[in-house]
Amino acid sequence: MNGDALIQAASAIGAGLAMIAGIGAGIGQGFAAGKGAEAVGKQPEAQGVIVRTMLLGAAVAETTGIYGLVIALILLFANPFV
Amino acid sequence: MNGDALIQAASAIGAGLAMIAGIGAGIGQGFAAGKGAEAVGKQPEAQGVIVRTMLLGAAVAETTGIYGLVIALILLFANPFV
Amino acid sequence: MNGDALIQAASAIGAGLAMIAGIGAGIGQGFAAGKGAEAVGKQPEAQGVIVRTMLLGAAVAETTGIYGLVIALILLFANPFV
Amino acid sequence: MNGDALIQAASAIGAGLAMIAGIGAGIGQGFAAGKGAEAVGKQPEAQGVIVRTMLLGAAVAETTGIYGLVIALILLFANPFV
Amino acid sequence: MNGDALIQAASAIGAGLAMIAGIGAGIGQGFAAGKGAEAVGKQPEAQGVIVRTMLLGAAVAETTGIYGLVIALILLFANPFV
């Protein structure tokens, strides 16, 4: 077994681990969706500002999920060790 | 043991780890579905906007689960190391 | 197998582990987004201060996700052991 | 393989593990941000004290995330075993 | 590979694992911060006692995070096995 194979094997595991970060965005954005739907039901006339606030906050929550994706892609396609 | 076997074995583990991200979308979208059903029960006349808001938010929450799926598929079918 | 390969392999796994920190920011910022959408629905005239408070708090919650990203990038591109 | 390589490899994994502590601060500070946005929406005239209390509490919640970062940095740059 | 290297390697991983305890304090203190901000918004004239109570509770919640930090520091700088 040579060293490159070990690094590539570990990178495949590391890429998988990095995606686990996505749990957070999924739960958080789902909570935002639920609260948004509830608020739109109560004040349909405020639908515009409610949905905009929900999507603005969801975009912020998406960031750490994207960080994980970026690290996974770096490990797979721009691995500095290989 | 040769190197390719190790990389393929680790990729199988990495693909499995990446799918753990799906926990988040499952919990979050379920919360959104619950709140949406609750809101439709209270304001049936607002069903249209409630369901649209719920589905819009759920679509956003789906993204990180899809990132995990993409990384898993890359590891399985477009593995850059093999 | 030489020592450098082992260190680089472990760094790839460590980088993936560090990204898991992002779960927190995702859940927390999503909660903030949901509460922000709810509050904007109830007091649309206070939209400005609500969104500013939400984003200020979300920025604070982002910090630990960024710490994880920084450690992952150090492990990949400025690894002190290699 | 010599002993130093093993220690450095384990330190890279340990640094990644230490960052997982950041999950807590992310969730907690996000909750504070959501409650802060909600409170500011209800009492905009009390915005000053609400935001100060939110940030004071968030600073306390940040501490354990910083402990994790400190241990990770010690493992990477001031490792007592290497 | 000698035994001391294995012990030190395992200690580095153990130090990282110990920091994961910080998740709890982060979530708990953030909840306290959110409820504190909410309470200060409702009774701004009681800000003093609210903040003192919040900080007292947060100090208690901090303890387990500090236990994790102490064990990590012992593993790194006062390791009884080396």
From TrEMBL, chains A, B, C, D, E:
UniProt-listed SUPFAM superfamilies: F1F0 ATP synthase subunit C
Site feature location: Reversibly protonated during proton transport: 62
Top-level lineage group: Bacteria
InterPro entries assigned to the protein according to its UniProt record, in alphabetical order: ATP_synth_csu_bac/chlpt, ATP_synth_F0_csu, ATPase_proteolipid_c-like_dom, F/V-ATP_Csub_sf
One cellular component term from this protein's GO annotations in UniProt: plasma membrane
Domain V-ATPase proteolipid subunit C-like: residue ranges: 13-75
Main location: membrane
Alphabetized UniProt keyword annotations: ATP synthesis, Cell membrane, CF(0), Hydrogen ion transport, Ion transport, Lipid-binding, Membrane, Transmembrane, Transmembrane helix, Transport
TM spans (from-to): 6-28, 49-78
PANTHER family for the chain: ATP SYNTHASE LIPID-BINDING PROTEIN, MITOCHONDRIAL, ATPASE PROTEIN 9
Protein name in the entry: ATP synthase subunit c
Gene that this sequence comes from: atpE
